[in-house]
Design brief:
mainly alpha; 2 domains; 10 helices; 6% strand
Length: 248
């Protein structure tokens, strides 16, 4: 008859078996982790996969709607998916699995698929995919207003550049400063105001000389494109047209 183990011996043997089993599990976990790491592509592999996706749809499309747009959309999709918390690997997998031929999708259908919001569209500079939470005419109106704002800023910068780079006399510069932001101003009114302007004060006692100096400064500003000029009919007795100018 086999000798019966004491409780202490039995407990020790079971503890040893548990340690051995645990070591085996840990070894298997490490092996699985190593295998997972080995299968995970590095950054260069992910970039190559993205380029291959774009090339594939470019070859399939040929036209801008299916070719060049694939490159644009691929970058837009990557920005969007990164912004939503996906890694480059996960983004590439999602694009391949869920957005086949994405370069040929209608903009609205792709936006619905992605549930792209207007805020995301603006934040991630997405132009080839429509958002699903705003009608197209509202989005178009937003971009139209932004373009008008950029154009206004560009014109203002161009005007400032002209003022900085185009040399004019001190009198012309003083006259230009006096009419900035005022709209149309008649030359006779300018002649009356010029008495207090730098460069004109010496001629204030001679009204004819003062008017001639204002006309010369006005002509100088017209020649370099810093003012607009027009003539108005005069209903007075002399019927001489009234000249007026405004800063461009």
């Amino acid at each position: 008859m086999a000798e019966r183990e004491s409780p202490a011996t039995l407990a020790a043997r079971r503890a040893e078996e548990t340690d051995q089993l645990g070591g085996q599990v840990d070894s298997e976990d490490r092996s699985l982790s190593d295998a997972t790491q080995a299968r995970r592509p590095d950054t260069r592999t992910v970039e190559a996969r993205h380029r291959e996706i774009a090339r594939r749809y470019a070859r399939a499309g040929g036209r801008r709607s299916g070719g060049q747009i694939a490159y644009i959309r691929l970058n837009e999709l990557r920005r969007l998916l990164r912004g939503r918390g996906l890694s480059d690997v996960e983004a590439a997998q999602f694009i391949e699995a869920e957005l086949e031929n994405f370069g040929q999708w209608p903009a609205g259908a792709l936006g619905d698929k992605l549930e792209l919001t207007f805020d995301e569209k603006i934040k991630f500079s997405i132009r080839t995919i429509q958002c699903f939470d705003r009608p197209k005419h509202e989005v178009d109106a937003y971009y139209h207003e932004k373009k008008k704002e950029r154009d206004r800023m560009k014109k203002a910068e161009q005007r400032a550049g002209k003022q900085r780079t185009i040399p004019v006399t001190a009198r012309a510069a003083a006259l230009l400063a006096a009419i900035q932001g005022r709209g149309w101003v008649t030359v006779p009114d300018l002649a009356r105001e010029a008495v207090g302007l730098a460069g004109f004060r010496r001629k204030s006692a001679d009204q004819v000389a003062l008017r001639q100096a204002v006309h010369r400064a006005t002509r100088e500003l017209r020649e370099v494109g810093l003012v607009e000029f027009e003539q108005l009919p005069n209903a007075g007795a002399h019927r001489t047209p009234i000249n007026r100018i405004r800063a461009t």
